[in-house]
Amino acid sequence: MVREEQLDAVLVPLGLAALGGYHLWLLYAILRHPTRTVIGLNAIARKRWVAAMMANTEKNGVLAVQTLRNNIMASTVLATTAITLVSVISVFVGVTSPASSSSSKAPPKLVYGSKAGEVFAAKYLAVSLCFMLAFVCNVQAIRLYAHASFLLGGLPPGQRQAGGERELEEELFAAYVARTVNRGSHAWSLGLRAFYVSLALFLWTFGPIPMLACSVLMCGLLYFLDTTSDHAHAAAGAGAHGQGVREKDGTV
Q1: How buried is 248 (Cβ within 10 angstroms: 0-12 exposed, 13-18 middle, 19+ buried)?
Q2: What are 209-229's pLDDT values in tens digits?
Q3: Is residue 225 within 8 Å of 206, Cβ to Cβ?
Q4: 232-242 burial, b for 16+ CB within 10 Å, e for fewer?
Q5: What angle, 0 to 180 degrees and rounded to 10, lies between the N-to-C axes of helices 230-238 and 38-55?
Q6: 129-177 pLDDT tens trace
Q7: Of 230, 239, 197, which is closest to residue 12 (Cα–Cα)?
Q8: For the chain, how many helices (H) and strands (E)?
Q9: Is residue 98 helix, strand or coil?
Q10: What separation, in Å, do the N-terminal and C-terminal C-alpha atoms of the chain show?
């Protein structure tokens, strides 16, 4: 039998391994079989969207900028939330630290696991690092979306060239804009994933058993959100615009 003080050293790595293994599989699926994942299908849809917006910038320019502005606002909200939570955790750790406490308090009975001060410090540090990662990723998403908003309204270099050279320049420029938009979306997704992982690490403050249970349940939930049905494959192959995709949130 594993003693209560040793549960953290056994169950917490198992939970982190479950989350890490799932995301490694997801990365492999996105790179090798993008049409089987929501993230891969959305990346393809964003490339088509950029091509449609740049086909007529005078008509679609306002729509494109407003769409990117909405994404910037969403990233700003998440970045503000993340840095605020880091500040709250820092204040909480400072107030509850042994140096600031006049008398030693008994460890909380609600926690089943190691109650050492070093373990509690590691818990708060892990949650803070997750929120800091979410903040950095969302800031990068804001930067990339703002850059893409300028590119969508611009013209590719080499407009004085004629014939096939000009068409090639336009295609390369549109591909660059699409990559910038997709990078912003990927940074947003990483920031959102950091929030998801922080939930499991937050439950670690109540013991390693809730953390492991949350990690396993989260892997199952994310698998449902990240994968698509067989109808999406036919829609992607036929060039449809996502009508065959199972109804899911594409921002996971």
Answers
A1: middle
A2: 899 999 999 999 999 999 987
A3: no
A4: bbebbeeeeeb
A5: 30
A6: 999 999 999 999 999 999 998 888 766 555 545 556 777 777 888 889 9
A7: 197
A8: 7, 0
A9: helix
A10: 39
Encoded tokens for 197? 């992982």
Q: 225 with 248: CB under 8 angstroms?
A: yes
| Residue 152 and residue 57 in contact, taking contact as beta carbons nearer than 8 Å | yes
Residue with tokens 């909200």: 77
| Residue for token pair 């390693």 | 208
Under a CB-based contact definition with an 8 Å cutoff, are residues 192 and 184 in contact? no
Enter the tokens of residue 66: 């407003």
Instruction: Quote the CA–CA distance of 226 and 249 in Å, as a whole number.
Output: 9
Residue with tokens 């929030």: 195
Q: Amino acid letter at 18?
A: A
Tokens encoding 141: 């998403």
pTM assigned to the model = 0.81
Q: Token digits for 96?
A: 């509850």
For residue 126, give every residue at least 6 positions away whose Cβ sits within 8 Å of its Cβ, in sequence order, or none. 201, 204
Q: What angle (nearest 5°) sits at the alpha carbon of residue 150, between those of residues 145 and 153? A: 125
| Cβ-based burial of 60 (10 A; exposed 0-12, middle 13-18, buried ≥19) | middle
